[in-house]
């Protein structure tokens, strides 16, 4: 949450900062701001709402200077107002911050007692005022920032800029990600490498507790003990530099359409031409008694699907937890547990905290991530990149189906090494997935008509059985977050135990039901809905439609496929229903209200 960018450059900083912020806007978009040092003097511009509002402000009120910091905000403390927007300034220091300062109230009381005045409701202003108080005590900017950091509890990535210092920036990290970009006679700071990609492909990731002093030509990093640290400089992939919609109306539409290619990339990574599944060598399923899968949101639903696969195919006991509950429950973790953390961004604070809880307790920590340089990847014993490519839309789509693809291959590999037989032809069948997903995406016209109807609903219910139950949950989550329509996913058989009381002619029910072994049971649940006036949208294959379409308001036809692959394929209509409903309602598809893509606070 929140994105930060900084530059000590040779060109005007404002356009560079705005370009970087554009790439970080997925992290938050309540307000944005920049500060520069020009002729030794700090100046700043801020605006509420999307980045475009800040760009407008800069057109009318430009900000010169070749050194600068910028911020795009996802509000935690204080409403999204200009006053609360970053950069925060106190006297001769300006600060941008991603994270939460947990002891800000105590610090605020201490600074107020010293006569320093607060003008915002944010936790971050405390950082600026504390630094300013140390400057007033006579400390140098570097020493003042260092003393400030020692006083902070919580999570932060911070960048500091100082009045009178044209060639100095301080960057510090604890709990929130931060990368340094190396240019030629220029230095950059960014919350992720995507933000830095237009300016440099040479990046150093700060580690927990690092404190970096930057000039245009030098970087000095101290670790949490104050010892000089040598951090690796890495080359980032150039494809990160391209963040375009490629003719699509929204990033989400582009990312839905990219799924056949993305899934294919995941298959190429882990499934050989001879149908050998190759996972990292150190991933060991043999002595494992239990799998613990932990994630948030959409990643949690991929874990729920994976539970069916690992249990049914590999015959391994599996527990699945939402990361925000996991560590506070203090679950006992036995040394024969394999702990698997699933995260697109690899930076989700709840998931990272859950990972750290299992560290030293579980046999191995496995990270399934889309961003290979992320914190979760770096703190895992084994990393499996899902190969989805950069996902910009806040609502996850291609990362979900790539997570599922890799999790299925993992379950099959676990079955193999544990002597369980695989479903017939499953490895050949998996190869058909990209083509099947492509066909499913092509069913979109019918979905547009369904979506126009759903756009006027107040509540929508999604039903699924077996491994399609998590897809019902995912469909409901997508619809909620994109169209702001209340939606719930239920296991089809659970409906009669309470939720059926909600059903009347105003509540559409989306039933995800491939013609599998459980189909007849799901159809019975669907009949129970229709008997109460419920309007059913049935997502099934041609055979399912032939036998069960009577009385159904709309049928969306998916290609027929082996049962084990159905969760991947049925994720597509779930995504498209949400996408087209949001388009019909005119909501902000790529940046839904109140959300952010990378959730780096608890
Ligand atoms: C929903 C969505 C979120 C994320 C969740 C976890 O469309 O994208 O629910 O899945 O915030 O994020 P990651 O996977 O980055 O840990």
- Rg for CA atoms: 25 Å
| Cofactors, ions, other ligands | fructose -6-phosphate
Cα distance spanning the termini: 10 Å
- Helical segment tally? 20
Stretches where pLDDT is under 50 for at least 5 consecutive residues are none
Mean pLDDT: 94
Strand order of the largest sheet: 3-2-4-1-10-9-11-15
Range of strand content: 15-25%
Largest sheet: 8 strands, antiparallel
How would you describe what is shown here?
With 602 residues, the chain is an alpha/beta fold. The mean pLDDT is 94. The strands form four sheets. It has an eight-stranded antiparallel beta sheet. The chain starts with a strand and ends in a 17-residue tail after the last helix. Helix 17 links the parallel strand 21 (459-464) and strand 22. The radius of gyration is 25 Å and the shape is globular. Helices cover 36% and strands 23% of the residues. 54% of the residues are buried. Helix 8 (259-270) runs parallel beside helix 13 and helix 10 packs parallel to helix 11. It is built from 20 helices and 25 strands. Bound molecules: fructose -6-phosphate. The site of fructose -6-phosphate has 14 residues, from helix 9 and helix 17.
In short:
With 602 residues, the protein is of the alpha/beta class.
